[in-house]
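Researcher: Here's a chain I'd like modeled. Treat it as a single chain, no partners, no ligands.
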Amino acid sequence: MRTLTAILRRDFRRRRRAPLGTLLMLAFPLALGAVFALAFGGSEPPRLRVALDIRDEGLFGMFLGGAVERPEFTDRVEVTLADSTTGRELLDRNEVSALVVIPADFTRAILGERSVEIPVWKNPRERVLPGVAVEGARILATGADAATLLLAEPLRHLRDLLDESETPPDTRIATLAVLFHHAIDRVARVLLPPVAGLATTTDSEAASPSSGSLFLLFLPGFAVVALLMVMDQSMRDFPREFVGGTLARCLAAPVRPGAIITGKILSTTILGVVCAAILTPFGAVFVDEPVDLPAFALLTIAFCGAAGGLGALVYGGAKSERQGAIVGPIVLLVMSFLGGSYVPLSALPPSMRALSPFTLNFWAVDGYGRILRDGAGVAGVAAHIGVLLALAIVLTTAGGLLLRRRFAGGHR
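Model: Modeled as a single isolated chain. Structure tokens:
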């Protein structure tokens, strides 16, 4: 027991003297989780800012001038009514995404079934929103074109009424109303109600998650990766000490190889638990409901035990320090992608989800998710703890045997 304590003290003294590498690895999940949360957080999408120059004084110009002031429109688009000169100045000052001009003869062109263009000037400093303004103008043009086909007869009648200088009699206005009614009635099966519609939900937190909830969503996966990286670096001391002759000097003393191997795996496991404890307060800030601490602690110990055993297996099987330094990160990277550390498990394709349970990351990330977001207790993550403990036993046993073989063979 004294020998084991000395080995643990030596390893932790080494970490204390050079803590920068470990601290940088622990900062990785916090920084990356914050970036993902801010990038995909529930902040409101940017509003489209448009300068609109309505030169048409006809019916369409009056209709459009009233439509852009409706709440249904202003909630989504910020419109500034201005002439083209002022609109270009707003573009130059980067205050709008686009300038849209409604030509003076737009109403006459529609009534006369003539071609007409809707000029759009885009802000070159922006990429997406100017395209939205262009698509909006294209939809407007498409709608006007469809109206000239569906309402051709009543529109011609309306054009004749507008061309007359005198006020039209009531009979002609009634005739116009009847023509519009008949035209709309012919397409009522498609338009009333529309065959295609847009449904929105108003009571769904998942539709616009907050940055805090997204941080909590990403943090477990990234934290698992960070713990694996820290423990991989700890187990990498074995091949380094083989090369440096440190282990040979230890064996010259009355220390058995089994004690050295056990001490190293145990110190790596404890290091993982300590690092998890350091990360825990940062995640606790974003947890609204109480967390089952026994479940969290047991899952962490089981995972760190399995990760320590995995490190022993990787570096026990490596023939050299260089080979272990290559194989170890590759194994961690593959497990992290398959196990849901970088991409949520629900977003993985079925073929990859079928392989996820074969990784340590899956059982840890899914278990932490159940505890932090679903409020699961020990019973809720018993399977996760059991699998990780079983893997810890199997991997530690196999890794210990490989490391013993390296000791017996005197590999460097």
